[in-house]
Amino acid sequence: MTVALSTQPLSILAAGGEGGGLKFPPVENLVKWPAWFLEGTVFEFNKIAFINFVAFIVPVVLFFIVSRKPAAVPRGLQNLMESAIDFIDVQVIKPAIGPDGKRYLPMLLAMFFYIWIGNLFEIIPTAHMPANARIANPLILAIVALVMFIGVGVKHHKLGYFKEVLFPPGVPKALYILVTPIELLSTFIIRPFSLAVRLFANMLAGHILLVTFSVLCITLWGFQILNIVNLVAFPMLVAFTGFEFMVAFLQAFIFSLLTAVYIGGALHPQH
Amino acid sequence: MSALSNAVAQVVTQAGETAGLDGDALKSANGASSAGFAYGLAAIGPGIGIGYLVGQAVQAIARQPESAGQVQTTMFLGIAFTEALALIGFVVFILLKFV
Question: Which of A51, A71, A73, B29 could potentially form a cystine with A131 if both were Cys, beta carbons 3.0 to 4.6 Å apart?
Fold first, then answer.
């Protein structure tokens, strides 16, 4: 008994030891997904693609149902969707673009819902994988944001937009040697890169956090005496699941807010 | 900074040699230890930054509760920008550890 007690805590730390040990799933599980069908083609369909489709179809269906029979006094589902639109309008567009930003509402709303529902699959049982924890997803969204704000800038200021960005007014002429490369780098490269990495790393970190606590709980379940640790570990897992629910919303909000800020910056370059 | 990571790499190499690890295992051990350092160091700055930022935002809201909405939006923006550094550190961690 004493021998078992003194060796068990050690063997639980030594991965692959005789007494089991913490066995983390290999990292390939995160980057290689088995194809469901159409294997080997460009249209290979796997779990991530399925989550993406759900994230794309659910808002479309919800908004379509609501817009079929719009009532003057919204009730039920219509109320919910109208408050979602109102949320994007008041919390994202008003502070970031201003009163003339209402025409970008559909794009930002679609972006918000797509990211949010993709993220929510992080904590939905049997899925447990945020679609945005694959870098391809946030990267495409970031490229959309990049093309959008450059497009808005070029549309409203013609090629003067690039002059405004690269040679900001009010800077002494000699300093342009310093300012122009920094602005070029920060506006056209670091902006989309950080936009993508922020979403990707947040979701991946959350996923790994949940996996770590799940593996810990499952491993401790097999050790009679160490099961006591589960009294702490399992509530932590539940708490982090709640935390990730919040993070899923927050990241979708921040992504659409930053896109709105970049569009606003392209629309009114002076401030 | 490189002196520190060199020292760590040296300690890991020596410990690995005494433990009888071969080249590949040693390399991954080195990668793992520097990954820990990379993320730990990357978390310092954003930690201080976000703490300061949210503290100031709370103070602003406490002083002027009617401006809470505006302050909150700006706070989230600031957090997003500050947090990016920590997240890049996390990506570096993943790259060092697994790639």
Answer: A51
Tell me the pLDDT band of A16, cut-offs 50, 70 and 90.
very low
Q: What pLDDT score does A5 carry?
A: 42
> Is B94 touching A (CB cutoff 8 A)?
yes
B87 closest CB neighbour out of A95, A202, A250: A202
Least confident of A9-18, A38-47, A196-205, B64-73: A9-18
CA A58, distance to chain mean position in Å, is 17
Contacts of B82 in chain A (CB under 8 A): none
Q: List residues bridging with A45 in a β-sheet.
A: A37
Whether A139 and chain B come into contact, CB under 8 Å, resolves to no
Alpha-carbon distance of A108 to A256, in angstroms, equals 6
Q: What pTM does this model have? A: 0.83
**Rounded CA gap, B78 and B95, in Å?**
26
Residue B46, class by beta-carbon neighbours within 10 Å (0-12 exposed, 13-18 middle, 19+ buried)? buried
pLDDT per residue over A77-136, tens digit each?
899 999 999 999 998 999 889 888 899 999 999 999 999 999 999 999 888 899 999 999
**Number of other CB atoms surrounding residue A204 within 10 Å:** 22
Query: Within a 10 A sphere around the Cβ of A70, how many other Cβ atoms?
Result: 9
Contacts of residue A63, defined as CB under 8 A and 6 or more positions apart, other chains included, come to: A81
DSSP A50-80: HHHHHHHHHHHHHHHHHHHS--SS--HHHHH
For helices A230-267 and B68-98, the axis angle rounded to 10 degrees is 110
Count Cα atoms within 13 angstroms, Cβ side, for A194: 21
Question: ipTM of the predicted structure?
Answer: 0.71
| DSSP β-bridge partners for residue A37 | A45
